Amino acid sequence: MTALAPASGNRPLHTISFEGTAAWRGTPVRTQVRILTARSVRDLVLDRRLLAMSMVEPLLMLVAFGQVFSALARAPGFPPGVRYIDFLMPALLLTTALHSGVQAGMGIADDTRSGMLDRLRSLPIRPGSVLLARSVAGLARAVLRLAVLLAFASALFGYRPFAHPAGLLAAVALSLTVGWSLGWVFTALACWIERTEPLYAAAGLLMFPLTFASNAFVPIGQLPPWLRWTAGLNPVTHGINATRDLCLSGAVGTGALSAALTSLAIAAVTAPVAARGLNRPH
Amino acid sequence: MTRAGDAPAIEITGLSKRFGSVTALDGIDLTVPAGTVLGLLGHNGAGKSTLVGVLATLLRPTRGTARVAGHDVVAHAAGVRRCIAVTGQRTTLDLTMSGRDNLIMVARLLGARPRPARARAEHLLELFDLVRAADRPARTYSGGMRRRLDLAVTLTRRPEVVFLDEPGTGLDPVSRLNMWDAVRELTATGTTVVLTTQHLEEADRLAGSIAVLAGGRVIASGSPRELKSRIGHRTVTVELATDDDAVEARRALHRAGLRPVLDRVERTVSAALARDPDLTAVVRALDAAAVEPSRLTLTEPGLDQVYLALTGHRHAETP
């Protein structure tokens, strides 16, 4: 260690020591994922705005759709004996999980912007660890939002979550699976596209028809013919059919299984694409 | 693993990098011995940051090869990353987390156990004068504090090669001196440092060798002394007590074969010296003329002269 140069009178009397750091040459993948996940989850908790948004959004959805469309329950073609809140909740579970997935996927763009990604890429870390951690943290956030959604719906809007407890749990699990998998598509996009602003715009544009051109708020039979046709093609419709079946009757349709498997297949394809995009030198 | 005294820390051969139609690097050849400081000097767009990006495995070269700490930057990028530390022009921090947590997280990711990671964070916070701000979110830090924290994170472990991309930017004068000290201490531990700078003084003060970049090429390289002696002249300035002495001194230096310039206001005579013995000639000539200088100073040529002569540009930040 060299002595302090006289020019640095204001400097604290320390010199750099690297004692004990020689063995720090990396850590196993599972430790990488654990540390990075803890970081993302902590960011979620520390960032009050983000936390508040996670709370307010489900409430807004409930007020907006639950109240505005509740008259639909008396319209012809609505499933008999079903209250609108019970019809709406399975759809909100799925779309909320989808939105969470999209946001989590693009969270990697925040790291690009802040320069944190350059730091992580310069460390001996697998790119997959960075992505997996983001995605797990996103899942945690989705769980939080679904819990808030269910709590508000039960406390304020008369939703009875435990009519079919096993069905509800399965619907939540399915929603999380679908949302988490779709998140990987957006993660892959965010890893390959340099400029993220157009990506945010594209995600918004895509999510709008996916959510509204579906049976989320209105039974598919009440839609105008052209929209009925579009909604029939929309994968979100099939996902909502599955969660609705689970919540309303506790029945596991083939829809639930195929929705889960299709989603996981999409994740299996897009996750490696995302990792390659992150690791590529520019 | 490369150690000081063994193979060079960095070997660059015929390195080029194009972004579409823009050639950012155009056939760079450079060798940096281990444990030394290389200063990459150049104005904006000269290719400094691109070169650092390639060496830090963040950018893929279009042509040519580069080896850092014995590893090829393309074929063995992971090996390079294990041996280097980078602090770029942008800070690379998690701004939501506190300064302390940033340091702890990187130490943990490098493989430190929780307790040593905390101790390491403490040492680095003290070293970079960030103890009082340690538990505030990095978002609330001033630009200079972020730079310091970024440098601290970079030094979590002893890297074999450190890349400092314009490290002085955004630092106040005291912080800059501290940063210079940190760089000197680093090289004393055997680490190789590559720093880019637009500040000629910074390169002059820190770097054992300098490569001047312009248009993606190395247009000159060598030690600061070599570069200066190749281009610049040392200047002797003689300060006299009276106007008569000043005039007499000018005549004396003229007789000695120099081209003295008289400043009547300051009562000084100055002359460029082409070779070292000229200084002796100056003293002899003054002595022979029985002129007693009140002060005699010898000025080294500045790198700004070097830069100007090589690139034909006056640097924007040159005073």
Could you characterize what this model shows?
The complex is a heterodimer of chains A (282) and B (319). Chain A is mostly helical. Chain A has one domain (29-279). Chain A contains 10 helices and no strands. Chain A has helices at 29-46, 48-68, 84-114, 116-121, 127-156, 165-192, 197-212, 225-233, 235-249, 254-279. The two termini of chain A are 38 Å apart. Chain B has 319 residues and is of the alpha/beta class. In chain B, 49% of the residues are buried. At the A-B interface, helix 1 and helix 4 of A face helix 2, strand 6, helix 3, helix 4 and helix 6 of B.
Could you write a compact summary of the structure shown?
Chain A: Belongs to the ABC-2 integral membrane protein family. Chain A has 282 residues and is mostly helical. Chain A has ten helices and no strands.
- CA-based shape of chain B: elongated
For the biggest sheet of chain B, the summary is: 6 strands, mixed
**Rg result of chain A:** 23 Å
Beta-strand content estimate of chain B: 25-35%
* Biggest sheet details of chain A: none
The gyration radius over C-alpha positions of chain B equals: 24 Å
Q: Regarding quaternary structure, how should these chains be classified?
A: heterodimer
- Helix/strand class of chain A: mainly alpha
- Given the structure, what is the number of helices of chain A? 10
The succession of helices and strands of chain B, N to C, reads EEEHEEHEHHHEHEHEEHEHEEHEH
